[in-house]
Write a structure and sequence with these properties.
mainly alpha; globular; Growth Hormone, Chain: A; 2 strands; 459 residues
Amino acid sequence: MSVKVSLKEKIGYGFGDAASSMFWKIFSIFLPIFYTDVFGISAAAVGTMLLVTRIWDTTNDPIMGIICDRTNTKWGKFRPYLLWIAVPFGIIGVLMFTTPNLSMSGKIVYAYITYTLMMMAYTAINVPYASLLGVMSSKSNDRTSFASYRMIFAFAGSILVVLIYQPLVDWFKGSFTEATSYQFTMIIVGLIAVAFFILTFSWTKERVRTPKEQENNLWQDIKNLGGNIPWFILLGSGVATLIFNSVRDGVALYYFKYYVIDNAAISFSTTMLTFSTVYLFLGQMTNMFGVMMAKPVSAIIGKRNTFMYAMFAAALLSCAFYFVDKQSLWLIYLLQALISFCAGIIFPLLWSMYADAADYSQWKTGRRATGLVFSASSMSQKLGWTIGGSVTLWLLASYGFEANADQSPETIRGIKYMMSFVPATAALISGLVIMFYKLSDKKMVSIMADLEEKMKKEE
């Protein structure tokens, strides 16, 4: 396929992950501490809720992928869902950060219901969005470019959230309760996310089509996925990478609130940026720089090697985090910047490699199931996110964490472990697993040439 994709389309595709990442970052960073310190649920109860609801949610991803593969509209298979789900996505996000006047058991039930609905909406819009990467262009370089724009906008969305979320909550608290302040903040974030998804729908186009002679055969598609070894390798590495990220994100605010003791770092009139906000902002900025370096670095040493070395470096740097004193903010920030750069460089590669795995499956089997491949990939992302989030809260509980109280030395030590050795272990596993990935860039050029030749014969 020789169609040249425009800058506008790359930007449009990026807006979708800006929206998703705004919510993802809120789930990872702000939701745990909202549940424990504002909503009033214990850390152990939150950890269990995350696991239970996400096990159900994880099964929804391949179902959504199957639905997408069998969707046929004038807009394509995947784009329509960006339009249809955007508004429900924003509304449910607000409900999730609404604190009803209920008993403790009632609050837990409410949290289960709203969180489950939020994850279902996230699946319904994010699986089609992720799958869209595989059908906007058949060129591997275009996909890496799309994936890079996606990740740049993802981190831009994350930066926006970490810069405005806590300051907005603090600003609203001047006139409202803390619980209401979280709700109003989510209304603002939700409106921005809805607008971004609609822009993605409007500015993108599906070009890669399912082979004309292909018949619906779900069992065959699942069987083909089961034989896709490169996909399984990406699955394992992706899960470990998400555990690495979710643990670091999930414990960050606890680390600053209870260990570093969060104070104002920078003040603008009535608005202040705390130590934690600066830490999170710095992480997102260096994440974005890592994303921008993904394409030029992988062009020299290959996608697999770039991914592998970045994860090994992240593991070593994370271990060093444990030994940093809370007074050494400059060193905390330096390690955050370096670790976040390593994390940023691998994500556009991961999604580009998932697209390559979908092409490999079509080349090997003659059948294309983009939605199933990407939804199963999204499932692995959520699995890593689930394990990381639940482990974070369970570890907090096991170390004796008590919300809004002075923490014991054992609890502080546990929080430091979760900022260092726990994510380091996950990063090391990710790097070891990706060593077995065999779809080199040279191999993909050959595969795409074969596929394009077959498509020309069908026309």
